[in-house]
Amino acid sequence: MKKIATITLAALTLTGGTVRADDVVEKSFYPYKAGVPAHAVAKPGTVINQGNVDQVQDVLDPGMYSAIKNGWYEMKVGSTTSFDLEKAYIDATDKGYAKVSLGDKPGEIKGYVSGRPFPQEPSTSDPRAGEKIAWNFKYGINWGDSAAISPFYWVYKNMNDGKVERVLKMSMHFLNFKHRIKQPPVPDIEPNPSEMYRATYIKVMEPQDVADTQLLIHRYEDDTKLDSAWLYLGFQRRVRKLSTGQITDSFLGSDTTIEDIEGYNGRLSDMKWTFKGTRTVLMPFYNHDEMPLTDEYAEPGYKYVAYGGKGNCFPTITWQLRKVYEVEGAPVDSNHPISKRQMFFDAQTLLASRTLIYDRSGKLWKSFTIGKSHPDHHLPVNKGTGIGLDDSFAMIDVQAGHCTTGYFKGQVDATLSPPSRFSVDAMRSGN
């Protein structure tokens, strides 16, 4: 154990980390400093399958346990590694978290400037602990100040026979307008008269029948204010504003909705968040350059993660034992098509890598995996960024026997996502 701690502290020195006097921040960002989780069966190199899955049920979420128990997937365990976040983000947390508090109503926060708003260890005795974790997710470092996934392939598959029904090639861009950490300008992009917090932009390039379809989402600093979302349909050559109900519809015929993007892509005030407890769970964290990669859709100098299991619906990756916060998000709108999201947030990064979505009757509907690669084992542009990179995804509709899988080429490169890209006028002009 002493050796593990020594190695971890050395790693902090190499990555610019700091041993902090504030124990709250230290524990939040370096949960493995004193050692990594261990399990009698789920050891690095072990393959979990139908034969031994019952022995590791305590470290699997219910959806993944069911998939392995049914013989759909075999999971290989990898070594637990620290995904150290950007030092500037940790410093901002250290400086400001003591001034942050929740407002009287859901969706309200006071005193927040930047960093992780609530690094304190959550407790099930705190009725608003789930809400605090949701804020940590919203103001997390997912993709940093700006980044792009380009190209980004979505592949629609019949889970029963593995037949590929459709392939979409697109690009996806993210930009934080406020609470920026590293990329200039810091902390905010001005002017910003609408007080926008974050913008997301998607453009479809192939196939021809949906080419030039574009989606633009503006999320505001005020979480109680409705997001603005616009869809540009290339064949109609016009922009239309989306209603709030449309974000829960299938996006371009996939198994994914707009609300599903990044694990949850909606307002915090649209859900009642309940913290269910801290657990050790096998999570899809890995090193991209050490995984089996496929020649499908390969780019010069880059290959994507391969898929296998039933219907080729599961990423062929290793899974790490990690400290996780389990949170349930239940829609406040009774007309919402789901009853709840069971989300598993990685405690170190606050990334939502496993989400189970239940239908209105309470039955499991969809199982969502977002694989995360360490940035130092990815493209050169991503090394040293301190960002756990979205690197693979699988949205499995367990009721319909169908899946949508994603092939990511993520790049933390500010030049790919300039502010000018995130406007309605840019959509009309072809961006």
Report what the structure shows.
It is a single chain. The chain has 431 residues and is mainly beta. Helices cover 12% and strands 35% of the residues. The protein is built from 6 helices and 22 strands. It has helices at residues 2-14, 23-29, 62-69, 87-96, 129-138, 424-428, and strands at 47-48, 75-77, 101-102, 109-110, 146-158, 164-176, 196-206, 214-220, 228-233, 238-241, 271-283, 285-286, 293-299, 302-305, 307-308, 314-315, 318-331, 338-346, 352-359, 364-373, 389-397, 402-411. The strands form 4 sheets. It has a 16-stranded mixed beta sheet that branches. The radius of gyration is 21 Å and the shape is globular.
Condensed summary:
By secondary structure, the chain is mainly beta. Helices cover 12% and strands 35% of the residues.
Q: Please give the share of residues in helix.
A: 10-25%
Low-confidence stretches: 1-19
Computed over alpha carbons, the radius of gyration is 21 Å
Backbone structural class: mainly beta
Large-scale geometry: globular
Q: Total number of β-strand segments?
A: 22
Determine the N-to-C terminus distance: 53 Å
Number of helices: 6
Indicate the proportion of strand residues. 35-45%
- Largest sheet: number of strands, sense, barrel closure: 16 strands, mixed
Instruction: Indicate the mean pLDDT.
Output: 94
Order of helices and strands: HHEHEHEEHEEEEEEEEEEEEEEEEEEH
